């Protein structure tokens, strides 16, 4: 019995060690890519700080203070050390530490991506199930066309069209931004998630205003998430509906609704968790154009404005944060998949 325990402990230790190696290697690769991008881009970080009219001796002194006179491998080591401590330097645009700016803007991106993912999941999963059950029917074709449009249409074009229709013409939603200027200085957020904060504080007028601002960009992100989730749900359900346990359930006389929603969807939900998690990560990193069109003060708009002003500390810091979140969600989804499906742990 003790030998079995030692074997299990050894196996668990090896699994944890492999997990840590994968995390460290992936993150190191992310840091290497961002570091060399920062060195390849023809923007001098010293002149971005001082301006192109600064005296030569000031430029050289600043370059030395920033460590840019050191060999490239030493610069990379310092870059990694600072990144692991959350020090991404100072933003030229805001004159604040980059990490402080990211803490301020990232909740807006998370709130937008979270609502978009919820919309995509709650609509995409039933549509995918419907398409699988009605395979080859008109309903199946409609769902597939919806997914195809979601993959094909550029999001910035769809965002501009949605603004024209739902804001300029119908006046169903609020203008671009996150909150009306009337409430901007009277409302004090706590977590940075305006919907949660306004509801928690009982300020329902603020909640309604924030909802009218967020619903259109979140719906657009939700539509693109829906296209991916519905397609994968259909694929998973088609595979499950062909399994022998479905035939056995029908032979026992179980209702079709119970077979689909209780048995088939439960087994399809295991890989579907990974799909939804990756969709969420994709919205977190891919909402730059949406935030730009809707003037949404999130991380995407922050990176865009920083790039336009040659603020490379902010650009690289934001890129590292987005990459880190994507890596974390990817690893978490893989862990959930292994937990929900014990067969993967046995391979």
- Report the strand count: 0
Strand content: under 5%
- Run of helices and strands: HHHHHHHHHHHHHHHH
Mean pLDDT: 84
Label the CATH architecture of the domain at 103-309. Orthogonal Bundle
Helix share of residues? over 70%
Q: Largest sheet at a glance?
A: none
CATH superfamily of the domain at 103-309: MetI-like
Given this structure, which CATH class of the domain at 103-309 is correct?
A: Mainly Alpha
Q: Choose one word for the global shape.
A: globular
Classification by helices and strands: mainly alpha
Instruction: Detail the poorly predicted runs.
Output: none
Q: What name does CATH use for the topology of the domain at 103-309?
A: MetI-like fold
Query: What is the CA-based Rg, rounded?
Result: 25 Å
End-to-end span in angstroms?
23 Å
Q: Helix count?
A: 16
Descriptors:
single chain; 347 residues; mainly alpha; MetI-like fold; 78% helix; 0% strand; transmembrane helix; transport; MetI-like
Can you summarize this structure?
This is ABC transporter permease subunit. With 347 residues, this protein is mostly helical. It is 78% helix and 0% strand.
Summarize the topology.
Blueprint: H1 2-40, H2 45-50, H3 56-65, H4 72-84, H5 98-133, H6 138-152, H7 155-169, H8 181-184, H9 194-200, H10 204-241, H11 244-251, H12 256-286, H13 288-293, H14 299-308, H15 312-340, H16 342-345
């Amino acid at each position: 019995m003790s030998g079995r325990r030692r074997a299990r402990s050894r196996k668990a230790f090896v699994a944890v060690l492999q997990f840590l190696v994968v995390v460290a290697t992936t993150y190191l690769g992310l840091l290497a890519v961002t570091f060399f991008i920062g060195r390849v881009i023809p923007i001098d970080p010293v002149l971005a700080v001082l301006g192109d009219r600064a005296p030569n001796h000031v430029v050289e002194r600043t370059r030395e203070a920033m460590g840019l006179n050191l060999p490239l491998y030493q610069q990379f080591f310092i870059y990694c050390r600072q990144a692991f401590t959350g020090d991404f330097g100072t933003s030229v645009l805001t004159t604040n530490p980059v990490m402080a700016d990211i803490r301020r803007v990232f909740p807006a991106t998370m709130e937008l991506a979270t609502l978009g993912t919820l919309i995509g999941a709650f609509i995409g999963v039933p549509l995918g199930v419907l398409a699988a059950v009605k395979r080859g029917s008109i309903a199946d074709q409609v769902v597939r066309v919806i997914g195809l449009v979601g993959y094909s249409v550029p999001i910035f074009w769809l965002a501009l069209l949605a603004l024209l229709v739902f804001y300029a013409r119908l006046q169903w939603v609020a203008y671009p931004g996150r909150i009306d200027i009337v409430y901007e200085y009277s409302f004090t957020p706590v977590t940075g998630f305006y919907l949660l904060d306004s509801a928690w504080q009982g300020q329902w007028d603020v909640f309604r205003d924030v909802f009218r601002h967020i619903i259109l960009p979140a719906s657009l992100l939700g539509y693109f998430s829906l296209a991916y989730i519905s397609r994968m749900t259909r694929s998973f359900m088609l595979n499950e509906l062909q399994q022998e346990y479905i035939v056995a359930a029908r032979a026992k006389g179980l209702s079709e609704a119970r077979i689909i929603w209780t048995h088939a969807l439960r087994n399809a939900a295991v890989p579907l968790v990974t799909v939804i998690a990756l969709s969420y990560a994709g919205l977190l990193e891919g909402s730059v154009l949406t935030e730009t069109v809707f003037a949404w003060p999130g991380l995407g708009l922050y990176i865009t404005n920083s790039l336009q002003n040659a603020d490379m500390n902010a650009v690289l810091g934001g890129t590292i944060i987005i990459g880190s979140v994507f890596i974390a969600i990817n690893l978490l989804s893989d862990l959930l998949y292994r937990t929900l499906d014990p067969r993967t742990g046995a391979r």
